[in-house]
Amino acid sequence: MIRREHVLDALACLTVSTLCFSQARSEILLRADHDFYNRIRLGAPTLLALMVSLLAVAAVGFVSVQVTRRVPRLGWLRLGAVAAAASLLISLNFVRITHETLGEWIDAVGRPGLLTFVVLVLAASVAWPRPSLRVMRRFLLIVSPLAVLTLLHITWMFLEITAGPAWRDLSGEPLKQGAPSLRRVVWLVFDELDHRIAFEKRPSDLELPELDRLKRESLYADAARPPAGSTELSMPALITGRPVVAVAPGSPNDLDLTFADGKPASWSSFPNVFSRARALGYDTAVIGWQLPYPRVLGDALGAAAFRPSVVYEQARGASFTEAIWNQWDGLVPPMHVRRLLAQRVAELRDLAIRTASDGRFGLVLLHLPIPRTPGIYERATGRLTTRNFAAADQAYLDNLALADRVIGDLRRRLDRTRLDDRTWIVVSSVRGTPVPFLVRPPEGGRTVHVDAPFNTLATHDLVLGILRGSINDASEAANWLARWPVAPPKSYTREGRPIY
């Protein structure tokens, strides 16, 4: 016969389990963005993995509680109370990490205050184990509706996913006819590549030979500003050539844009640099990060691929095994995030270099998440790593060295495929103040410096000018920028929105 005590214990343990998997629960069940930012669609393997994860941890907890109840010795009871208190504190910390607003409230107490609270809870569980266990169970039972609703929500989602909106995941349709000329552009956009750190205030122990070489052979600007202060605003702006001040996912396949003049448009239907390049007869390709370029822009692309930001896809998997591994690995957030980022950067790097060195494409956009932190690169060994726990500023420098290596690998591949003598390389960044802006013509040549402030939004028209043949070298590119400057934003809001 099932006793009431056992039911309450099971409910309390299920609550602890639900709190521990707060990040997975939030990502899988509480997203309001139509899965726009995800590459793996929410499916039965992920939902089943979450349910198994919740029940498995709850079962372990339940068995531990029953063992503790049957041990008469006070020492073992104290140990059980300390274990229960530690489990509760850890689960609450997962809630703090997952929910940003709640985390800000808790962090306002300060590290000393939080440490004091933890010590008091653990000390109370040692001094008064039975009362502490009763208080903890009472608290968990108060929160238990969250656990019950989570299981019901998972069950409901099994039914809902079969009737969800269809994803339009296009791989691109290559153009049938040949390009009108041999000209081609590889447009390389890094995330958070800062001009001052890369060139002006670089630490003496950081070597960036490929960036230095590229700068010597290019037009370079030291006062370029991006069109916005966030990736999801800057990239649509760069691709459409229009300043974007707000975005919102309208479906899994599209992003609703609001331009600086207040006019709205869907990203997929608005003319962009790829549709215009295709109208000129050049095939196009995108390898990118965070935004689902294949689903949104597939009609204007001959090839496309993307990898989601680690903010959005930490708990999903194409199979049950992959999903449950990601969910349990997520219980160690620092390692999990680094593993996912390193894995996705490695995949993007290979795809990017392979696509950029494919002569079929006249315009290739490569959007990569480096050198943003956390650190995933070891300068000493030249390898990707999941164990770079250096401070943010040092981790940034390590990832900056990785960005430099990507440029070198790209140029060597272009040289081996004999495309270097007809490929323009444009390098910029999606956010930062200022950002690097390098434009290298196929023949290279001397450095051409542009010191006037301008908006990298101009890259849209500059790339098309190169493909049309109206810009033939770095000097002509500099003259073009002088004649057609695009005013940079006056500043950016905390959310990255530009203020013009």
List keywords for this structure.
single chain; 500 residues; alpha/beta; Alkaline Phosphatase, subunit A; 2 domains; 9-stranded mixed beta sheet; 16% strand
Give the N-to-C terminal Cα separation.
70 Å
CATH homology-level superfamily of the largest domain = Alkaline Phosphatase, subunit A
Secondary structure category: alpha/beta
Number of strands: 16
Major pleated sheet: 9 strands, mixed
CATH topology-level fold name of the largest domain: Alkaline Phosphatase, subunit A
Rg to the nearest angstrom?
Answer: 26 Å
How many domains? The number is 2
Which consecutive residue ranges, at least 5 long each, have pLDDT under 50?
A: none
Chain-averaged pLDDT: 91
Count of DSSP H/I helices: 17
CATH class category label of the largest domain: Alpha Beta
CATH architecture of the largest domain: 3-Layer(aba) Sandwich
Shape assignment: elongated
Helix percent reads: 40-55%
Indicate the proportion of strand residues. Answer: 15-25%
How would you sum up this structure, described in words?
There is one protein chain. The strands form four sheets. Strands 1, 2, 6, 7, 8, 11, 12, 13 and 14 form a nine-stranded mixed beta sheet that branches. The chain has a three-stranded antiparallel beta sheet with strand order 3-4-5, with helices on one face. A hairpin with a 4-residue loop joins strand 9 and strand 10 (383-384). It has 500 residues and is α/β, with parallel strands linked by helices. It folds into two domains: 4-161, no CATH class; 184-499, 3-Layer(aba) Sandwich (Alkaline Phosphatase, subunit A), CATH 3.40.720. The chain has helices at residues 4-20, 22-29, 44-70, 74-98, 100-107, 111-127, 129-160, 195-200, 209-216, 231-240, 273-279, 293-297, 320-329, 333-356, 392-416, 459-468, 474-483; strands at 184-191, 219-225, 244-251, 254-259, 264-266, 283-289, 303-307, 361-371, 377-378, 383-384, 423-429, 435-440, 448-450, 454-455, 491-492, 498-499. The protein is built from 17 helices and 16 strands. It is elongated, with a radius of gyration of 26 Å.
